[in-house]
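Minimal example, chain plus magnesium ion.
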Amino acid sequence: MIDKKKKRLFGTNGVRGVVGEDMTPALVLRIGLALGSMSEGTIALGRDTRTSGEALLAALASGVMGAGCNVVDVGILPTPALQYLVQEHFSGGAMITASHNPPEYNGVKTIDADGTEMADERILPLEEMVFSGSFREVPWDRVGNRTLAPHLLQEYIDAVVRQFPLGAGQGMTVVVDPGSGPAALSTPQILGKMGCRVYTINGQLDGTFPGRMPEPSPEGLAPLADLVLDTGSAFGVAHDGDADRAVFIDNTGQYLEENAEFALVVDHICGREKGVLVTPVSTSRQVEEVAGRNGCSVDYTPVGSIYVARRMRELISNGMKVVFGGEGNGGLIYPRHQFCRDGGMTAAMMVHLLTASGKTLSSLAAALPQYFMIKDKLRVQDPQAVVTRVSEAFSSDTLDFTDGVRILRKDCWALVRASGTEPLLRIIVESRSRNETDSLYREITEITARPA
Ligand code: MG
């Protein structure tokens, strides 16, 4: 059963808003004061390349210090790099980022001492304090100080490179598209250290995102695809605005669907290690099938990377072997490295995977089991009520309520769930044939379209 708690300010991935409207230095100052009040010791802060990042980071730092904690300001870096550094050195962290959102957005992602995104159990009291204003504001002799530490990013780069055999990318040419985001400082270096010849596009840090928007869409990546072809590269890799996700262009210039990317990495990892794979109920069956034929099982969670990361930890503490986790959007979690989505690590994994297989990315993708998926979102007044109606209409099917309702049939499945942040109904339908997918999709939309 779903254990998502009602939050007022924080969504699945932190607080986000439009700068100058609902996201302001005044709000971020309060978040900093609350975070500092709930913490002891030193908090690491970082940001992506957005134009509002410097102002919001200063406000956040000010609040944390005012509540008596010290701040280490790592500056511009990917979210997973900050998470790695927090896990290694600090008692907590916070990242100023709006991930894949357009440039006018920004936000705050809070990070626990273990490097994972802060869980609801701590977010709820933090929110409460932001609203109530009952901060621990300390006297003059206990106000925290701030240290600048941009050099710490190197530790993350080295930690990723260490996960792979020396020279794993020797002889391989690749293209990196950080989208003018923080991975411009890390992914080219990671792949270079693995021995790859690296070309970069959109490699300048720029919060106006002149080359493409922070969401790595197939349209925005057309110049990357051209460069992959022009340079004869093995692949092109692109990140979202804070580089916890990585998506790929194959050697023929084709966009690799993110579930296929996930399935390829699963095939590689599960071919070497046996255990459990953790992923949300929204992920393609392609992933489950590939895990299963490699002797690994799948454990499903509600939608949201934090639920995946926490579940991985929970299973491990129960004595289970967890080999991998991730979402079908290019956000993959490598438990041997750290318990958060890591785009730089995924780029490095692709190099290793291709070298180990001796095949091209396009041929590996073509060999995957094929599925047909429809993803849709519908604007409805009361999404929760529609989910209930769908559950009732499909009560003779096998249903799963991990998140919304999942309808499970022999060769096809569907997920209908309410969005956590908007009055939206999200629908995913998948099967092995286009006809079957279309027909289940029609069955569902007949119910959702019916007036309440
Ligand atoms: Mg992101």
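The chain has four domains: 4-150, 155-251, 258-366, 372-448. The chain has a mean pLDDT of 95.
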